[in-house]
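Project outcomes to date are best conveyed with an example. Our students and postdoctoral researchers have been running inverse folding experiments weekly, and each run begins with a structure described purely in C-alpha cells. The record below, which covers 283 residues, was selected by the lab manager from last quarter's runs and is presented without edits.
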C-alpha cells in the first residue's frame, strides 16, 4: 500500500508540476526562460509560495520527524550540514560544467537547474541555433536527474509517515513548477513546438516515480538509516529555498510588491501546515 501511495504522489509531483507549469504559461505567466530580464509579479508570487512550502516542510515536518527517532541530534545536524555542503558543491559543478561547455560567464547569474534554463535562454540570444539545441538536451538531462532525486526524497518521507510523504510531495510540486516553466520556455525555443516541449519535459518528470521506486526499495533495505534520509531531504529543501528561490526575490521593490512577496511566502507555509493538519485529522 505504501508503494502505491509513493507512486501516485511521485506521479502527481513529477508530471503534475509540468502540466501546472504549462497551464500557467498559457495564462501568460512570465519566466526566466523568455530572455526577458527579471521576473513578472505572478512568478515572483509563485517563487515566494514555493520557498515558504519548502522551508515549512523541512523545519516543521522532516527535521522534527528525524529528531523524534531518538538519534543523537549532533549526528543528525552534522548530516544536515554535510547535505547542504554537498548540494552546494553539486550546484557549483553543474554551473562550472555548463559555463565551460558554452564558453560563457553565466555561472554567476544564479543557482540550480532553474537557472540552467535561464542561462540557455541567454545563450539563445548570443549563440547559433545548434548550440541551443544541444542545450535543450542538457536541460532535459539535468531535469531528469533532479526529478529522480525528488522521487527518492518523497519515498523517504512516506516510509517515515504517510502524512509526511503527502506534505513532501506537495512541497516538491510547488518548487518544481517555477523550474518547469523555465524548462518549457527553453525547449519551446529549441524544438519550435509547444507540444514537443511539453512531451519532453513530461517524460523528464516521469522519472520521479522511478526515483520513488528506488527510494522505497533503498529505505526499506536500510530502515535504520531513515532519520538520515529525512535529514538529507531537509537539506535539499532548505538549499533550494535559500540558495535558489529566495535570492531571486531579493530585489528592490515597492511596499505593495514586498508585502505581496511576504504574503505568498506565508501562504506557502500555511499551505504545508494546512495539508499536514488535514492529513492528521483523517488519520
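After processing, the design step wrote out the following sequence:
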Amino acid at each position: 500500500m505504501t508503494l502505491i501511495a509513493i507512486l501516485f504522489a511521485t506521479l502527481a509531483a513529477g508530471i503534475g508540476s509540468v502540466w501546472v507549469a504549462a497551464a500557467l504559461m498559457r495564462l501568460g505567466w512570465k519566466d526566466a526562460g523568455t530572455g526577458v530580464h527579471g521576473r513578472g509579479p505572478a512568478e515572483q508570487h509563485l517563487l515566494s509560495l514555493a520557498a515558504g512550502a519548502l522551508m515549512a516542510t523541512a523545519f516543521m515536518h522532516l527535521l522534527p520527524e528525524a529528531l523524534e527517532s531518538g538519534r543523537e541530534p549532533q549526528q543528525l545536524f552534522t548530516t544536515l550540514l554535510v547535505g547542504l555542503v554537498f548540494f552546494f558543491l553539486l550546484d557549483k559543478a553543474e554551473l562550472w560544467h555548463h559555463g565551460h561547455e558554452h564558453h560563457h560567464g553565466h555561472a554567476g547569474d544564479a543557482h540550480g537547474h532553474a537557472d540552467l534554463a535561464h542561462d540557455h535562454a541567454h545563450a539563445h540570444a548570443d549563440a547559433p541555433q545548434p548550440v541551443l539545441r544541444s542545450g535543450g538536451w542538457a536541460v532535459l538531462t539535468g531535469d531528469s536527474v533532479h526529478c529522480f532525486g525528488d522521487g527518492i526524497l518523497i519515498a523517504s518521507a512516506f516510509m517515515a509517515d504517510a502524512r509526511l510523504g503527502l506534505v513532501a510531495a506537495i512541497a516538491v510540486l510547488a518548487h518544481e513548477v517555477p523550474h518547469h516553466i523555465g524548462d518549457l520556455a527553453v525547449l519551446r525555443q529549441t524544438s519550435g513546438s509547444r507540444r514537443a516541449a511539453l512531451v519532453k519535459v513530461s517524460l523528464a518528470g516521469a522519472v520521479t516515480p522511478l526515483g520513488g521506486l528506488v527510494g522505497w526499495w533503498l529505505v526499506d533495505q536500510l530502515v535504520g538509516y531513515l532519520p538520515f534520509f529525512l535529514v538529507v531531504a531537509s537539506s535539499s529543501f532548505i538549499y533550494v529555498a535559500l540558495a535558489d528561490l529566495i535570492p531571486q526575490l531579493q530585489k528592490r521593490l515597492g511596499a505593495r510588491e514586498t508585502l505581496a512577496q511576504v504574503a505568498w511566502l506565508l501562504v506557502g507555509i500555511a499551505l504545508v501546515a494546512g495539508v499536514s493538519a488535514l492529513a492528521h485529522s483523517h488519520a
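Residues 129-160 form the longest helix (32 residues). Residues 2-281 form one domain. The training component of this project remains on track.
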